[in-house]
């Protein structure tokens, strides 16, 4: 997914941990013009910018919505598409063409650079799109795309968890992860105790139904320490987490980098390709009916690398 804000600010991932019981309230962001689909963005937040390596969380629906995101670039991250209802068609510069439906995972690793587009048929759409920041040792890797039609499930009294990324309770997703993390959809029916890695910080987002520990439109932050998560109610939640990300990063528009100069270079390279119509290091998305998305103008202030929280 693209960050289609016309004037994106530096997404600072800043210092100091702490804040037990934090609730990150989502802000509404339009994906495109006046008739665009709207999403609730909980990461990055005003104070907390990352949970583990997870650095971007957009939730959308349930509502009839037309997703039409033109070809746009990414660097230094993975995109994760997870649906509760509907379908999204993914195209990318590697030649991938894949529809993702509920219970399936589309995972794109941008590495040193990739471009892609996303479309939905305009019917009911409900889901989440997330970014995972790549650690420095992996962020220049060759871009890849994975589609996982089936994923492993962890079951316990009162819950069933589909493991999307990483590991939960000894169950590991086949999706490629480049840092210690977890992503899971947890279906709750009654009272449940879900095992957690005590070295991880976690986030909890309500997808549907009523689960006492998760509210609508907000991401609840859980600091490292507990080995279990007690949930009660009936519904589904998204659980994300990972080891606290130690590196400072720069997030701006659709890029994750390490310096102002690097981000400016990514933007210039993308815009050279947009203006010339020629393939760049981001490649070309074939088959999309429309022009690629121009990059916004860089802010007048210098972009600075930051840590996880402000």
TrEMBL record:
InterPro entries for the chain: Pirin, Pirin_C_dom, Pirin_N_dom, RmlC-like_jellyroll, RmlC_Cupin_sf
Pfam families given in the database record: Pirin, Pirin_C
Limits of the Pirin C-terminal domain: 198-273
Domain (Pirin N-terminal) ranges: 38-132
Similarity comment: Belongs to the pirin family.
Full protein name: Pirin family protein
Species this chain originates from: Nonomuraea spiralis
């Amino acid at each position: 997914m693209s960050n289609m804000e016309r004037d994106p600010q530096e997404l600072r991932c800043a210092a100091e941990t702490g804040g037990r019981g934090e609730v990150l309230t989502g802000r509404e962001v339009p994906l495109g013009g006046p008739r665009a689909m709207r999403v609730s963005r909980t990461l990055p937040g005003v104070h907390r910018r990352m949970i583990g390596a997870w650095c971007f969380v957009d939730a959308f629906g349930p509502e009839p919505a037309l997703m039409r995101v033109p070809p746009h670039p990414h660097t230094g991250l993975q995109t994760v598409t997870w649906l509760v209802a509907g379908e999204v068609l993914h195209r990318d510069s590697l030649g991938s063409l894949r529809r993702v439906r509920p219970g399936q995972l589309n995972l794109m690793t941008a590495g040193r650079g990739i471009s892609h587009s996303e479309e939905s048929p305009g019917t009911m759409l409900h889901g989440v799109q997330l970014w995972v920041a790549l650690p420095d040792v992996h962020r220049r890797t060759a871009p890849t795309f994975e589609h996982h039609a089936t994923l492993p499930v962890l079951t316990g009294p009162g819950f069933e968890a589909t493991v999307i990324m990483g590991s939960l309770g000894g169950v590991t997703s086949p999706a490629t992860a480049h840092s210690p993390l977890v992503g899971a959809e947890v279906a709750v029916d009654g009272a449940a105790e879900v095992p957690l890695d005590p070295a991880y910080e976690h986030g909890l987002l309500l997808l549907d139904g009523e689960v006492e520990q998760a509210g609508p439109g907000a991401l609840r932050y859980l600091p490292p320490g507990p080995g279990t998560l007690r949930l009660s109610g009936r519904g589904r939640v998204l659980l994300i987490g990972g080891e606290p990300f130690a590196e400072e990063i720069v997030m701006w528009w659709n890029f994750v980098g390490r310096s102002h100069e690097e981000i400016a270079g990514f933007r210039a390279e993308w815009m050279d390709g947009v203006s010339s119509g020629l393939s760049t290091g981001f490649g070309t998305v074939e088959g999309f009916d429309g022009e690629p998305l121009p990059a916004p103008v860089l802010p007048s202030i210098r972009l600075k690398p930051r840590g996880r929280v402000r």
